[in-house]
Amino acid sequence: MSGYLTRELQIDLGGHGYRLQALKDLQQFDDPDHAAERIGISSAQWSLFGHLWPAGRVLADHMCAHEIEGKRILELGCGLGLSSLVLSRRGANITASDYHPLAAEFLSINSRGNQLPDIAFHALDWQVPSPELGTFDLIIGSDILYEAQHVALLADVLKQHARPQAEIIITDPGRGHANRLSRMLIEQGYALEQQRMRFDPQENAPFRGRLMTWRRY
């Protein structure tokens, strides 16, 4: 992969070791064809997909034991794809999605690096309807409430792609937008359960990070 530097991360989750190819640091940038620029990803945001953030690790750890049998699962904003890799290893019916033009490439590299089959990937623009993607029993995401304008877009994506009886799980480090999303999902018929969690080993209670689960029966 030319134009930027990468590093390999070693992650232990659920009794398995995972190798993740990630960007070396937040200064890495390479958009020679202006693909990211055309879809609104600035140079400052370009590298964010290529790192393992605390919320992503918390979600992946939760996916090590979450009930998946018979469920069609969608990961939103998969980034490096750790949660999708965990679910793939468990034999789940998982589709990963992201907006970044390099996410599919990193997902493929990380699948092969962990001796896992290719994971279905969908380049999902939250602003553009994608009826071909279909509906899901379980939709997951980590740190995807990054900006205020994402909340309404995400609520609409969930409305389009969640089945009538669905479960949504999002890990959020406390960016301040989760309550607004929760109100929108309650209007869609969901009930919320949430758990305050330590996202950083150095963090002391009360914790800002939350693992949020919405269920609609």
From TrEMBL:
Entry's Gene Ontology BP terms: methylation
Entry-linked SUPFAM superfamilies: S-adenosyl-L-methionine-dependent methyltransferases
Pfam families on file: Methyltransf_16 (PF10294)
InterPro entries assigned: Methyltransf_16, SAM-dependent_MTases_sf
Keywords: Methyltransferase, Transferase
Highest taxon above the source species: Bacteria
GO molecular function: methyltransferase activity
Protein name from the UniProt record: Methyltransferase domain-containing protein
Biological source species: Oleiagrimonas citrea
Lineage: Bacteria, Pseudomonadati, Pseudomonadota, Gammaproteobacteria, Lysobacterales
